[in-house]
Write a structure and sequence with these properties.
By secondary structure, the chain is mainly beta. It has one helix at residues 19-28; strands spanning 35-37, 43-44, 57-59, 132-134, 147-150, 152-156, 159-160, 174-175, 183-187, 198-207, 212-222, 229-234, 241-246, 257-264, 269-276, 283-290. The chain has 2 domains: 7-59, no CATH class; 132-290, Jelly Rolls (Sandwich), CATH 2.60.120.
Length: 296
């Protein structure tokens, strides 16, 4: 058998009895040499089938670039499962709310709109710092825009719980505000301006017929008589009023307690009037009108 080799490749010639034997030897020696066989036009790479026996092969220094290795998966390894398709959404089943979304806390929501009160803590707008009586006729003390219509009223930084005080009050006889500097005392009286104590103001916005409203107020009673807080609606400061609601009996004590007041306007009213129930022998102390945040 004669091998045809160019002089250029003589130094690298491999003489073998057959192409099959040459391929076997290359495989054993792990020599990654591409082979070009005489009489063939194709290239034989390591690990491929050798040409028929009887053809001689030579080392090709001008062999084409080797193709990149192909990653053949191991059949023993488990195949990854394909991603499951999302389940269809059943429109008839309601979707639960997203737990990550903060829902409004019912305890922080007003029970109903707050009437548009001005000066809801009854702060002094005129007079001495220690306050005094509020008179429907004339007074040096004012808590504008509140107007004293009738009865016995006063506005002070602190007040005496005793109905018929004699001497200096003790610490247990004193009631103080729950908000800011002033609280109001309301009691039934006789005389030209006598009757239940009534305190009126024009609201920032009129009440709307049929609209529910609510507010909270701090209040306490002194005296043994049954005393309640009433709310009247009117379109004048002190006349032509209609009762809108009345509280339960106010508790007796030294510390003001929160009372929730709710009502529905029976007409369009520009004024609200706070009234102590028309009985003698008791006084109400009130302070801090505010939205009914945690009222039922």
């Amino acid at each position: 058998m004669r091998t045809v080799v160019s002089q250029r490749h003589a130094s690298t010639m491999l003489r073998v009895p057959s192409a099959m034997q040459r391929c076997s030897r290359l495989a054993k020696n792990a020599i990654a040499i591409a082979l070009v066989c005489s009489g063939c036009e194709h290239t034989i790479a390591l690990g491929t089938e050798c040409p028929p026996i009887g053809k001689e092969c030579i080392d090709s220094t001008n062999r084409p670039p080797r193709p990149p290795p192909v990653d053949i998966p191991d059949a023993s390894e488990p195949k990854p499962e394909p991603d499951a398709a999302p389940a269809p959404v059943d429109a008839s089943v309601p979707t639960p709310p997203d737990a990550s979304v903060d829902e409004p806390d019912a305890s922080t929501q007003p029970a109903a709109p707050f009437p548009g009160f001005f000066n809801p803590s009854f702060e002094l707008t005129a007079g001495a710092p220690d306050g005094g009586n509020l008179s429907p006729l004339s007074s040096s003390v004012a808590i504008d825009p509140w107007i004293a219509c009738s009865g016995s009223l006063s506005a002070r930084p602190e007040d005496d719980l005793r109905n018929s005080p004699v001497g200096m009050p003790s610490m247990t006889d004193i009631v103080v505000p729950t908000h800011l500097q002033t609280l109001v005392s309301m009691a039934f009286s006789v005389g030209i301006t006598g009757g239940p104590a009534t305190l009126s103001q024009k609201l920032s916005e009129p009440l709307v017929d049929g609209q529910p409203y609510a507010f909270a107020v701090d209040v306490i009673r002194s005296g043994s008589a049954d005393a309640r807080l009433q709310v009247w609606g009117s379109n004048t400061p002190c006349l032509s009023f209609n009762e809108l609601t009345e509280s339960e009996m106010i508790a007796e004590g030294q510390t003001l307690q929160k009372v929730c007041v709710t009502f529905t306007a029976t007409a369009n009213y520009t004024h609200l009037i706070l009234v102590s129930s028309p009985v003698s022998g008791a006084r109400l102390f009130i302070d801090n009108l505010r939205p009914a945040i945690d009222c039922p």
